[in-house]
Design brief:
Structural class: mainly beta
Shape: globular
Radius of gyration: 13 Å
Largest sheet: 7 strands, mixed
Distance between the termini: 37 Å
Number of strands: 11
Length: 114
């Protein structure tokens, strides 16, 4: 499975961005997709995940500001990011977990300027 992430860029504090992750194969109902991020000098951390049944999970730092969604007809997972803060600056990676296999996209850079 190949994942193509897009939508990153430079945005001011308080602004919004929507990231997209297009998969080369249709997600199964058992597939969990998600977004992770890695800021400079820090470890990669979970941002949000969504199961095939639509159950979502968010990092406490983004809860209420970010929303993950999935369009299975387009094999695409989205991350709507609102009220962006400087601490949201990172490379964002999409991920698909299919059974015991984990697939990663190439990452897209989000920079939040103050």
């Amino acid at each position: 499975v190949q994942l193509q992430a897009s939508g990153g860029g430079l945005v001011r504090v308080g602004g919004s961005l929507t990231l997209s992750c297009a998969a080369s194969r249709r997600a199964l109902s058992s597939t969990t997709t998600g977004w992770y991020r890695q800021a400079p000098g820090k470890q990669r951390e979970l941002v949000a995940t969504i199961t095939g049944g639509g159950r979502t999970k968010y990092a406490s730092s983004v809860k209420g500001r970010f929303a993950i969604s999935r369009d299975n007809t387009k094999n695409t997972t989205y991350l709507q990011m609102n009220s962006l803060e400087p601490d949201d600056t990172a490379v964002y990676y999409c991920n698909e977990l299919r059974g015991s296999y984990s697939y990663w996209g190439q990452g897209t850079l989000v920079t939040v300027s103050s």
